[in-house]
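Researcher: Here's the sequence for the chain we discussed earlier.
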Amino acid sequence: MMTDCPARTVLRAALLMSSIGTAVPCLAQTYPQRPVRIVVPVSAGGGVDMTARAVAQHLSTVFKQTFVVDNRTGAGGSIGIELVAKAPPDGHTLLVSSSGFVTNAAFGREKYDPSRDFQPVSNLVSLPYVMVVTPSLPVKSVQDVVALAKAQPGTLRYATSGAGGIIHLSSELLTMLSNTKMTGVHYKGVNEAYPAIANGDVHWIISAPISAMPLVKAGRLRAIAVTSARRAKALPDLPTIAESGVPGYDMVGWFGMFAPAGTPKAVVDKLSAEAKRALQQPEFAARAEAQGTEIVGSSPGELAKVVKAELDTWRKVVANAGLRP
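Model: Thanks. This is the structure I predict for it:
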């Protein structure tokens, strides 16, 4: 025979449900409760590191708590990335990484999954890349490169800054979408690749404007297109690869902030809003413009869509090119 619940039981249940409903907002109000570590999986001094430090300084001021940048390098960035994936999901350990965070995972060689193990916070800045060719190559556009590659399959050579990196996959994306066959030549970095391209030993490379454009201005390389879906603000006269005969091509590098999966939405939203404010500071905006990067400051949901789309794209590129870890 069923009986009515005692009044005190009903009251206790009501209080419990109320406490659950208010726990997350209370956490957002008291966050952060101790110093916050921002893990950067690359060495100090580069674009990712400088972006992370600018955001950390702003967050420290706003939240009246220390945000410390911790450069955890090694294993292609995996050591620092995996450290954050395993951290408590309370917002006190964060990650600021480049889009290599996704390209590395596309090979299936990493112990982390960008979509499963992380909660996106904000896409901080984006970096349209530029396609440059050796001056001795008789081409003026990407369309000319594609035509030459189809006429002489396998003879055109592109340079990379290392097998499996963003430059390598971006180049393979171009060959996949244009249905051409070109040969990759891998170097330890762009500084080793540029002389080979200038001399005509290799024919083209997709690279960051900050390092490529000084060589273009010096006449050692020729810029023919940018990799983004729309023209780059810093290089408005250069057409996109997509409008130059390879529809659908769209690749930009980016620096994003992430938290461990399961971090409360209220905390993530709070961090995202303040990170966006940090990017609007005049000093940071001027530095970003000088480096050819574009301020984004996206919402968590927008970054989640970028991660999913890119992971799908790079996995297709890896499979199509038959690449191995």
